[in-house]
Amino acid sequence: MPKLTTNNFTFKIAIVQGIKTLVLSSRAYYQHYLNKHTKDGDIGTIEVKLKKPTRSEQQLRYYFVLIGLLAEHTDYDDEELHDAIMRLKFGTKKLKLGKDIIEVRKSVANNARLPKQEMSELISYTLEKCAEMEVVVPSKFELGYISN
Predict the structure, then answer these.
(1) With contact defined as beta carbons under 8 Å apart, do 83 and 89 qualify?
(2) Verdict on whether the full-model pTM lies above 0.70
(3) Average pLDDT in the 133-138 region?
């Protein structure tokens, strides 16, 4: 049985002449692949997998600076405050384990890879909590974080 060649090509969705279109990140590489691995009449399939940008390391570090400032202000530890903020922002759910029912925070991401937009919302929410509690927060720029 002949070995089939496969490859992945990244793309973004853009509006071109009023129509949503798949725009390849490297049209030249795609064309090179077609020229090298295909011949007229070949049949193939295309599988589209969409990715959501996940939070950056800078966002995560900034969020935990905010958690640290809240910890200093409240005398709770970072883990307690992180759990509390996550519960307040994203909610909780009840789990039944045998005869026991326990309330846990809702899962919002796999492997701690919160989508970038939700991380921005979490940071904004945490900043609001800091302001509500009159915690003085240096700006991201004062702390040396560059917006991304």
Answers:
(1) no
(2) no
(3) 92
